[in-house]
Write a structure and sequence with these properties.
- The protein has six helices and ten strands.
- It is of the alpha/beta class and 237 residues long.
- The protein has an eight-stranded mixed sheet, with helices on both faces. Strands 9-10 form a two-stranded antiparallel sheet.
- Strand 7, helix 5 and strand 8 form a beta-alpha-beta unit.
- The mean pLDDT is 96.
Amino acid sequence: MIKERVVAYEHNGAVLEGFLACDDATDKPRPGILISHAWAGRGEFECQKARDLAELGYAGFALDLYGKGVLGSGPEENTRLMTPFLQDRALLQARMQRSLEIMQAQPEVDSKKAAAIGFCFGGLCVLDLARIDSNIKGVISFHGLFNPPANFKARKIKAKVLVLHGNDDPMVPVEMVTALEQELTRAGADWQIHVYGNTKHAFTNPQANDSDMGTVYNAKADRRSWQAMRNFLEELF
């Protein structure tokens, strides 16, 4: 049976609320998978991913960057919530690190076995976790943003990196994909980028259906990317 609970924590005066899910069939600590939310904030989508990971034998922890109960209601508000973190990547990185530490401190989690997955904006967030050399084994970006941080120069990336990307994503032109490949190579990372043809942004979200914005669900890419994640996590742990 999957058990779940809310985990309250703080960072720089912000009151945050994570969501933990794991199988109660064992008391043995298991690998923890941090889940970084898209631009709207931690919602049901991320909580369900935590449950799905729990079904696979992991502890899924959906983090909170914005604050307890803070959720965007649409593109305008989502942008307003996300922008401060894009403008202050040091703040973003520190809050991601704090969320990772909170997950690792949970009794259900093996603190030495941690990975992170992120969706859209969350993909950018987990790539930053790898960039800052946090205590994490690997990161997975689902249709993430690739904007590089300007607050530090390139350094060695020890975490393994898996990027799952839609070829027709209007938010990430091919030049950004190439730039990320070059950055990861210079950093000596063990990296993979899987590109799905005829696939736009937000391809894992069944609610995404805005062709004009370029956010469209793709069932095949959703299934294939989830399987790629499973393979990656099995290799890590």
